[in-house]
């Protein structure tokens, strides 16, 4: 079980990482120039036919996907640390985000070593990597080194 100081240190570390990410994103936005900061102009609408067709499930899904929110990586990490393993779809539902955007973020977090996945295809579950996981992994690595040097 973690002490209060360890929890505070962990929070401070995460805040520093997030602030660095914010600075990087601000710099990237500034590099794009002021004209990029405003929203793009909407496309002109095409006149609708006299009788609009009944919306299908596919159209309803597309409309729902358009209204999805941008999900911050920290929100995904928090959800994964609170819950056990979650699917990409479950995370997208809980964050009201686009599934493809959530999947991209999950893969980036996995590459950064902050989360891991288990299962394959539709059975894939995402898990937060805890300090205990890191300690267990490091202990196994040291044990392997000890065995190799003894042999």
Summarize it.
The chain has 151 residues and is mainly alpha-helical. The protein is built from seven helices and two strands, in the order ααααααββα.
Radius of gyration: 22 Å
Summed up, the domain count is 2
Order of helices and strands: HHHHHHEEH
Taken as a percent bin, the fraction of beta residues is 5-15%
Count the beta strands. Answer: 2
Architecture overview:
- This protein has 151 residues and is mainly α.
- The chain has 2 domains: 1-33; 69-151, Winged helix-like DNA-binding domain superfamily/Winged helix DNA-binding domain (Arc Repressor Mutant, subunit A).
- Helices cover 62% and strands 5% of the residues.
- It is built from 7 helices and 2 strands.
- The protein has helices at 4-32, 34-37, 57-66, 73-82, 88-95, 99-111, 131-150, and strands at 115-118, 125-128.
- A two-stranded antiparallel sheet has the order 1-2.
- A hairpin with a 6-residue loop joins strand 1 and strand 2.
- Helix 5 (88-95) packs across helix 6.
- The longest helix is centred in the N-terminal third of the chain and has 29 residues, at 4-32.
- The radius of gyration is 22 Å and the shape is globular.
Record keyword descriptors for this entry.
single chain, 151 residues, mainly alpha, Arc Repressor Mutant, subunit A, two-stranded antiparallel ribbon, 5% strand
Topology:
Elements: H1 4-32, H2 34-37, H3 57-66, H4 73-82, H5 88-95, H6 99-111, E1 115-118, E2 125-128, H7 131-150
Antiparallel strand pairs: 1-2
Helix pairs in contact: 5-6
